[in-house]
Amino acid sequence: MKRLVPLALVLLVAATGCGSPQATPAAGKDTPAPAGPAATPAPKVIKVGFIAPLTGDVMTFGESAKKGTELALEQAGYKAGDYKIELLVGDDRNDATEGINVATKMVSQQGAKAIIGALTSKVAIPIGEYANAQKVVQISGTSTAAKLTVDDKGVRKPFIFRACFIDPFQGKVAAKFAAETLKVKSAAVLYDKGNDYTVGLAENFKSSFQAAGGKVVAEATYSDKDADFSAILTKIAEAKPDFLYLPDYYQKVSLIGKQAKTRGLNVPMMGGDGWDSSDLDYATMAGGYFTNHYSSADPRPEVQKLVKDFQAKYSAAPDALAVLFYDSTNILLESIRQANSDDPDKIRAAMQGLKDFPTVSGKVTFDKDGNPVKSAVILQVQADKTQKYIQTIQP
């Protein structure tokens, strides 16, 4: 009797080729290899340079700036959109020639597409001229000299930006505070004639103070290498000013301040953001005032979050240098995200187009010259090495 095979089994054999010698094709050159796991695409990388004085006369500035930049990158996971950030760190030693050398190596040899820094105007300006010529984006956290983003004729350097207010504004703020809040009628001005930063502050303070009805009764200059100011200070003391404007960095300010007091020049002193350092001689400069970019006492959530995060990582509150480089780094990261490219021209365009971008030092919208429109705060030096918030002055 013929055995019947169930229909379901017949269909299964037909579908699978089970038991048929033709079911499995012979391996050969025309047979595709079994598919393996998909290859992981290489991450997109953009190299970013960081340039600041990590050694030399203002190394505490550089240390603060580096901490601010590193914290911003760490919080972003060293990423900006689809791009992984590779940070190149360079020490300019607060020397313009060294700064150019570092920037040239980063751009021409290491392939940096953007630079965060430099810190002081005398270094940031020549680096900016180089970066702009190479069409590489530069954003400085703290270079306040007007010539950073424009040339001597006032023509915009399109690849150059800053996160801080500029010297003309800082000088005007100091003059307004001296005339309207301190009610002083006369002032002396003492500054480094070879430093764009101090010259800019001094010139704008003088013109604004005089416009407010004040009188500049003494003016003197010195060079970076000077250490004995006795002759200059004696002449200033003879002019009997009500106020001394001293726009320089903390080391020079501490030295001049001490010599001024030994010559009986016990008048209110004021300077710019260059005073903001833990190495300022607080005992000598106690009672003095300076313009700055932020105060840790500001209750805004952005400020208090950074203060908390910075304190947790570094066991200290951030100074203005740390804040401005933190802000600069985040501005650059946001510009890379929006550009979705490592093309410096696209990053530049995205940065120029930022509107009310929130930063710790205030919302940022860049003007036509690459400068943010921001307010300034007045702080007073305290003998216990703290800074007392006095007031905020709007642009």
How would you sum up this structure in a few lines?
This protein is α/β, with parallel strands linked by helices and 395 residues long. It has helices spanning 7-16, 59-75, 96-109, 121-134, 167-181, 196-211, 230-238, 250-262, 282-285, 301-314, 320-339, 344-352, and strands at residues 44-52, 79-80, 83-91, 114-117, 137-140, 160-162, 186-192, 215-222, 244-245, 269-271, 289-292, 376-381, 387-393.
Describe the structure.
The chain is of the alpha/beta class and 395 residues long. It contains 12 helices and 13 strands. It has helices spanning 7-16, 59-75, 96-109, 121-134, 167-181, 196-211, 230-238, 250-262, 282-285, 301-314, 320-339, 344-352; strands at residues 44-52, 79-80, 83-91, 114-117, 137-140, 160-162, 186-192, 215-222, 244-245, 269-271, 289-292, 376-381, 387-393. Strands 8-7-9-10-11-12-13 form a 7-stranded mixed sheet, with helices on both faces. The chain has a 6-stranded mixed sheet with strand order 2-3-1-4-5-6, sandwiched between helices. Strand 7 (186-192), helix 6 (196-211) and strand 8 form a beta-alpha-beta unit. Helix 2 crosses helix 11, helix 3 (96-109) packs parallel to helix 4 (121-134) and helix 5 crosses helix 6. The longest helix has 20 residues, at 320-339. The protein starts with 6 loop residues before the first helix and ends with a strand. The relative contact order is 0.13. The model is unreliable at 1-29 (pLDDT under 50).
